[in-house]
Amino acid sequence: MNVILAIAKTTLGEAIRRRVLLVILLVGVLFVAIAPALEALSPRQELTVLRSLTLGVIQLTSAVIAVVLTVYLIPNEIERRTIYTILSKPVRRWQFMIGKYLGAVGALGLMMALMTGIMLLVFVVMGKSKDVSDLAMLAKVPIAFFIQMSLLAAVSVFFSTFASPIVNFFLSGGVYLVGTMFDSFFNVLTKETQPLIVKIPATIVHVIIPNFQSFNVQNSVINPTQVIQNETMLYVGLSVYAVTYISILMILGIIVFEYREV
Amino acid sequence: MSLAIETKDLVKSYKSKSGTINVVDKLNLQVEPGEIFGFLGPNGAGKTTTIKILLGVIYQTSGDAYVLGKEAGDIEIHKQISYLPEKPYYYEHMTGFEIMQFYASLFGIHDKDKCKSLLDRVNLGNDMNRPISQYSKGMQQRVGLAQSLLNDPQLLFLDEPTGGLDPIAHIEIRDLILQFRDEGKTVFISSHELSDVERICDRVAIINKGEVVAQGRLEELLVGGRIEITANNCTDATASSLRDDDTLVSMNHGRVIVDIPDSHSPNEVVKTIQGAGGEIVSVIPRRKRLEDLFLEAVTVDNRAKGRTIGTMTGKDDGTEADEVTA
Ligand SMILES: Nc1ncnc2c1ncn2[C@@H]1O[C@H](COP(=O)(O)OP(=O)(O)OP(=O)(O)O)[C@@H](O)[C@H]1O
Ligand SMILES: [Mg+2]
Residue B26 phi/psi, 5° resolution? Predict the structure, then answer.
């Protein structure tokens, strides 16, 4: 456990200093900060526009950070040969991989927390929020995003055990896109009227690909008429779903990594 | 006591466009506990690859590798060994002290004083709070050595520990390695610094194209002396005609240096040179050096296998030797 934490801590420390990530984060933060100004340009002067815009920016920025951060996570270690010094110590490969993953998720969490904090600050300062409970509701959405991004990070760490960073970027990005358009995408492809040649692969992909869409809980905040029945259950359910997927992906990744030459 | 390192017909092959090549080819090594073992060979001979297999970072294609009596890669053994990679790189955002703490925690060691005293031992005490990104090559190499001592290893793998270091740092590291032997540690060191190796190693193995071409105690391998014959006004043709398996010939602006084992008589060489109009400058007997053994072993191996590469006759006497092909 100590070993995993030590690797996670080091990974986190390195990740939050990576210039590419900081630039992406800065762009995200800027957009969140100037969103109220952009809202003024919109014809529909409603809170919903600002909310969906801000949350959308946070989600997109987080997804880009999650993928960019993780596609290089293990390849960089190999390229710089830092992995040799680590694996020649009493560190098992699975510990190394889990440590790297947790460190990345930690860095992601910090960056997302920063964006969320700025969002809340902007909403308070600009008077765009009714009350504290409204703010709290707003703050919960990025938590669901964070669970979503942790899952996305696991997808990309899994791919990174055999794919190059560039290939991985498109693989993980693709999985995320397909997974985000989950229902609309698969409803069409798995329709009864589809030929089997489309239907069967689509069904298989449907089963394999994580449903990223279910984490998009922003609708209830943006549109108050959509009420979530049991919020706690929703979040617990999302966490269980994500943790299950993450575990499977990590186990598969570890199996590949264990046999692979580094 | 069992061997510190043993490999039996170790093979590592990689697929290339022209088929599979054995980068390590039926390698048999025996390293005794407590000795400093020099692992030598030309660039690309397979030294680093062998070390990586012994560490369990990559896997052999066939054959066996044992470290401290257990199969290579055994995680328990990793508590007793350490590794200094060639051209090491450390997380640059960390300070020397932080990197030590990080590596220490991988052993479950949380002793700050130990980290500090090891940094002192490699003369980094004053720089330990600076980020690694500001360290010179030599300082990074010394951090590498310090981290390799964290677990009080019984066996150290040092891959070119003096690569890129200035002569003073060289000597410092050489002295450190000698101290390791006094502490009873086994040191497995891959190096191109033959004079260093000759000074500190008990035994060496020279490998070429993944195969051992010489292995044994230095004093046994370096028996016999050599004779160096220097002559002026020589032609390339004369120089070429002198070339032989154990005769090293270097040629520079008509000056030829012929280096033969002392079992050969210098008379013949002298006669040949004089017969071709050359002028003998000196005939000097000298001790056989590791460099001679290295060149001899590698050249003989390459010729026997019909390879033409790696047969340069470079010498370290300050003259720039033209390559003379047989
Ligand atoms: N992953 C790999 N795939 C293909 N070939 C490889 C791989 N790793 C090493 N090689 C080849 O194996 C050979 C031996 O490499 P190795 O690094 O072990 O040499 P070395 O003896 O350490 O050389 P040097 O003295 O230059 O450090 C080289 O020809 C190298 O190109
Ligand atoms: Mg090497």
Answer: 50, 55
Domain range enclosing B261: 226-286
Contact B82 A88 (CB under 8 A): yes
Phi, psi of A212 (to 5 degrees): -70, -20
Query: Does residue B250 lie within any of the structural domains?
Result: yes
The answer to whether A61 touches A115, Cβ cutoff 8 Å, is yes
Domain-located, residue B138: no
Residues B59 and B175 in one domain: yes
Residue B12 CA, ligand 2 centroid: distance in Å: 15
* B53 Cβ under 8 Å from any chain A Cβ: no
Please provide the DSSP assignment of B170-181 as one string.
Answer: HHHHHHHHHHHH
pLDDT tens, N- to C-terminus, chain B (326 residues): 589 999 999 999 998 888 899 999 999 999 999 999 999 999 999 999 999 999 999 999 999 999 999 999 899 999 999 999 988 788 989 999 999 999 999 999 999 999 999 999 988 999 999 999 999 888 888 899 999 999 999 999 999 998 878 888 888 888 889 998 899 999 999 999 998 899 999 999 999 999 999 999 988 888 888 899 999 988 888 888 888 777 888 888 889 999 888 888 889 899 989 988 889 999 999 888 888 889 888 888 888 888 765 444 433 333 333 433 33
| CATH classification of the domain holding B258 | 3.30.70
User: Minimal Cα–Cα distance from A76 to chain B, Å?
Assistant: 11
Please check whether residue B60 lies inside any domain of the structure: yes
A81 touches chain B (CB under 8 A): yes
Q: Are residues B237 and B216 in the same domain?
A: no
Q: Which residues surround ligand 2, an ion (CB under 5 A)?
A: B 47-48, 86
Whole-model pTM: value is: 0.86
Determine the distance separating the centroid of ligand 1 and the alpha carbon of B208, expressed in angstroms: 12
* Sheet arrangement for strand B19-31: B19-31, B5-16, B62-67, B70-71
Residue nearest to ligand 1 atom 28, measured at CA: B44
* Distance from Cα B39 to the centre of ligand 2, integer Å: 10
Residues B163, B248 share a domain: no
- B/e letters for B106-124, b = 16+ CB within 10 Å, e = fewer, are bbebeeeebbbebbeebeb
Query: Number of structural domains, chain B?
Result: 2
ipTM entry: 0.87
Ligand 1 lined by B208 (C-beta under 6 Å): no
Answer yes or no: do B231 and B205 share one domain. Answer: no
| B14 ligand 1 Cβ < 6 A | yes
Judge residue A41's burial from the number of C-beta atoms within 10 Å of its C-beta, 0-12 exposed, 13-18 middle, 19 or more buried: exposed
- B263 shares its domain with B162: no
Looking at the fold, whether B157 and B213 belong to one and the same domain comes out as: yes
Q: Judged by CB atoms within 8 Å, which residues 104-123 of B form the interface with A?
A: 105-108
**B189 and B240 share one domain:** no
Spatial distance between the Cα atoms of A144 and A218, rounded to a whole number of angstroms = 9
Asked if B76 and B192 sit in the same domain, the reply is yes
For atom 26 of ligand 1, which residue has the closest CA? B43
